[in-house]
Amino acid sequence: MPVNRNALIRYKTIDACLRNRRRRWTLEDIIDKVSTALYDYEGIEKGISRRTIQADIQMMRSDKLGYNAPIVIVEKKFYKYEDPDYSITNIPLSDHDLSKMTEAVEVLKQFKGFSHFKDLNEVVQKLEGHIYASSHNQRTIIDFEKNDRLKGLDHLHVIYEAIANEQVLELNYQSFKAREPKWMEFHASWLKEFKNRWFVVGNHGSKEVMVTLALDRIVEININKDKLYRPRNNGHTPETYYENTIGPTVMNQAPARVVIAVKGEHIPYVATKPLHKSQRILETTEDEMVIEMHVTLNLELEREILGFADGMKVLSPRLLSKRISDKLRRGTDLYNE
Questions:
Q1: pLDDT tens-digit series, residues 278-333
Q2: Are 34 and 10 in contact (CB under 8 A)?
């Protein structure tokens, strides 16, 4: 049952009153305290009715919110907890609550690379401890893909802050082809995650062309607060920038019409999990499904197709078909050596 904020304030105030056993609490006393709390927290001046507080006490006594509060009336006038150690803040978490908290912790842990979320670390640890203490057998139902040993995660917070504050980055970057890292001035526009690997997208110095850099290739990183931040993203957002692309690498070319024949057991998989949002089915037979999509030809597209091995055949364009064919042939040669 959802509980609004005012109701929670009332329940907590009633709980605080009944835990204070140095005083005998009449209904009028409790109403006074609740009215004061509502004014202090919410600015509500009209006070609270006798009927509302009586209903709150009944709700706390019931199991609807899991409280089952042992509230008794003494001498037909004074309210108190029969158990002096009881408090609604001490009730154990239900299995449902534990399940929700466990999954919330798993979600929060995905952001640990950002300084923006560093303050959550202590909160997450407390939640994990509370869940563990409440139930040793509580299991995680959702398992997120993660790789804590991935290089470059420690750069996330610096880049995030630079983009948020519109500041220029200085990167010591070593591409896969370079023998040595090289310093560059970089104007970052956004961060991109793909298959649990992080990239930063922006422009290098005064160059107009946007480039994508892998965070695990950044050797060193600094923020230069003296230089003017000038991102040249041509008005793009991540949504528009990746409109015709699979993966993080956007090619400076028009999207191509890609036609692929999907074979046998792979048909239902590709039909229910499209390779790209532009995918549509051209024809289907018992052992083959032909799909079409409009995407740029990049390495990520090739890897997606190669991942199906004998389950896919590129029909067009010819250039892509030849690349896939050559790579499959070289792969076969490796096994035949």
A1: 999 999 998 999 999 999 999 999 999 999 999 999 999 999 999 999 999 999 99
A2: yes
Q: What is the pLDDT of residues 79-93, one digit of tens each?
A: 999 999 899 877 655
For residue 152, name the pLDDT band (cuts at 50, 70, 90). Answer: confident
Average pLDDT for 225-233: 89
Architecture per CATH, 256-336 = 2-Layer Sandwich (3.30)
Q: Could you tell me which residue, 91 or 195, shows the higher pLDDT?
A: 195
Q: What is the mean pLDDT of residues 171-184?
A: 91
Is the overall model pTM greater than 0.85, yes or no? Answer: no
* Residue linked to tokens 């597209």: 301
Protein fold of 5-90: Arc Repressor Mutant, subunit A (1.10.10)
